[in-house]
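During the reporting period the student researcher (J.K.) took over the structure-prediction task from the postdoctoral fellow and processed the backlog of single-chain submissions. One of the processed entries is reproduced below for the supervisory committee.
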Amino acid sequence: MTHQPPLEPPEGPQRRPDVTQHTAPLSDGRTRAQRQDPAYPPVSPQTPSEPHQAALLQPGVEPAQPAKPHRWVELVNVAALAAILAAILSSAGTYALTRGDVGASLAFSQPRVVQANPAAPNWTVTAAVVSPSVVAITVVSGQGGGQGSGVILDKVGHIETNNHVVAVGGQGSQITVTLDDKRTYDATIVGTDPSADLAVIKLSAAPNDLKPIAFGDANTLKVGEPVMAVGNPLGLAGTVTTGIVSALNRPVTTGAQQSEDPFGQQAPAEPVVTNAVQTSAAINPGNSGGALVNGGGQLIGINSAIASLGSSGGSSGQSGNIGIGFAIPVNESKSVADQLIASGEATHAYLGVTPSDGVVIDGPAKRPAAVIAAVGSGTPASKAGLKEGDAIIAVDGEPIDGALSLIAQVRERTVGDKITLTALSGGRTRQVSVTLASKPTTKQ
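J.K. obtained the following structure tokens:
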């Protein structure tokens, strides 16, 4: 795989490309999110694909203990009580850990783990439930190959991963998927979305005992919440690591994807911009496409990038985990997966402005903002009344500190979503409601 050069910090306010095609360094300029090519020799002959180099092991529920002998009447009472409790839990939408046969759709209906103390999960239980839903992916072709991870979406064999995992071998690649129990199957590409760095593949002969991942909601995440990353780092399949949610809505750009996709179609290179979940859970080469889950075993993100301190002297070697990893929020990844499964393609939300980094006066203070340098005619932004010189300082109440931040907020949303922009102009603040449209297909 090729290596991405370090991204340099901006030297001052500058014009940026349109919100749908923008790339920029991380805001602090000290680390970079980039393609996480292998930092170490892989355990197997293939090269681990990486989360773009850019998911608490504490005691929880005690294991069940053998029951002592009871009289027959007591056993009947216990059985009846258990049946009543099971009915109550089922009606509340909580499933037992043995409910592995819940529907095959991508709806939020798969089983989840019920922790006695969500703040201190029993990761042993979570790992046992989640691991069968995470796979190791190997890509081999005459041009090269690599390894990555993926999550099982449904019982018919759809698996979501990163685009850069399946694109590593180029056209004509052979893709194989190894389940948690070491069974291996061939797979084919259903669809790819380079701009989101996501892809869906499908097992060619899926077994009937697949365990789909349980879906969570990234919008409910809190900073400090415990999480677990599951994947195939350095070819070590089934590896789990734990940490916390370090930050939310972290704008990350990881550079342009390859211009030639696995189908051999030429396409303009487009940067990946993610409104990422930042985590301290160790992510390394090969974790790409793997699962970041909460204590309940629900998918909250697709691991895709890590921050790197960079290399000196032109060395091609890259560092491994330094405690700053990034995941694509599950709400975005699920939306893209649904579209890829349905049509093989994904559409993206579009605002229609050219933003730049800027600092504006806000009362007695100054604050960073995304300053609009241009507004496209007939775009959602134009229809909403946004004008050149408006400084966007928030989207739906989430602070915006620059062009990349605005782009990331738009990228994670879907076509038709209505957002509220907080615009500052001439010392006055106003709320602007915008309905996002589909990004034009015309190449720019």
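The committee noted the following: The chain has a mean pLDDT of 77.
J.K. will present the remaining backlog at the next meeting.
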